[in-house]
Amino acid sequence: MIKVGFNVLAWSAGLPDTLLPITEKLKNIGYDGVEFALDHQGLDVYKRFNKHLSDLGLQSTCVIVMGPDENPASDSAAVRAKALDSLRNYIDRAHALGAQVMCGPFHSAFATFSRKAPEEQEYQRSAEVLRAAGEYAAQAKLMLAPEALNRFECYLCNTMEQLVKLINRVDHSNVRAMFDTHHANMEEKKFKTAIETVAPVLAHVHISENDRGTPGDGHIQFDEVFATLAEVNYSGWLTIEAFTRSDPDFANSINVWREYSKPWEMAENGLKFIKQMSQKYKL
């Protein structure tokens, strides 16, 4: 059964209390769940948010990124060990939050480049770290869903073909893949081919417009996206990931320099759009 979520990065990174009334409104307008960016607050904060969401009848997913000093693909054993420690800590927080999926480009360090094409040993090193993380995630009944990013934010996995190669090398049932329409718009030849490629290991989908504004307002070929998701019998989350400058520190960190759409415009119109498209293609 398709579930629709909204990533609250449109308002804030982390789990500040200011998100509590926002999650209530997201529930009231019809969302099934909320996606949070994990930070390093204590587990008690995550447990409190879990109770709040449960009381509302909302489910949750979460997203993380890795820094250069915790890069799973690093040639340094010490850095890879730190990467695994960080992933386990994030898994603990995701579990405390009650999240079903932890997604993001955590196969490698965000916006960190080797200035050369990805090498086989980098995929192998990343796979080994992700396999160990998958073992830990299995105990928390959490699905890990690494994400392919565009070439300006990542070099290890830009396409579904590269991501599937990595996931197959990981070979763990708790490590699958996610698909993001924003990144695919830049890196894939055809949405249909990309989705068909990742379908056997697809666990999570971000519905993101080309400019990171309201889904349906830009030039993403969403008819092709929804039609193909229906063809491959996708039944997971459709989560809107749209960005604003509401949290300047976060916005600056990902090069968001202007407003694309207002947060509630994104949430309300995006939900209507997803429901219309899902009904159209019987998703």
UniProtKB/TrEMBL annotation:
A Pfam family it matches: AP_endonuc_2
Q: Which molecular function terms from Gene Ontology are attached?
A: isomerase activity
InterPro entries hit by this protein: Sugar_Epim/Isomerase, Xyl_isomerase-like_sf, Xyl_isomerase-like_TIM-brl
Q: Does the keyword Isomerase apply?
A: yes
Report the residue ranges that make up the Xylose isomerase-like TIM barrel domain in this protein.
Answer: 24-258
Is Lyase there in the keyword field?
no
Q: What protein is this chain from?
A: Sugar phosphate isomerase/epimerase family protein
Position of the signal peptide: none
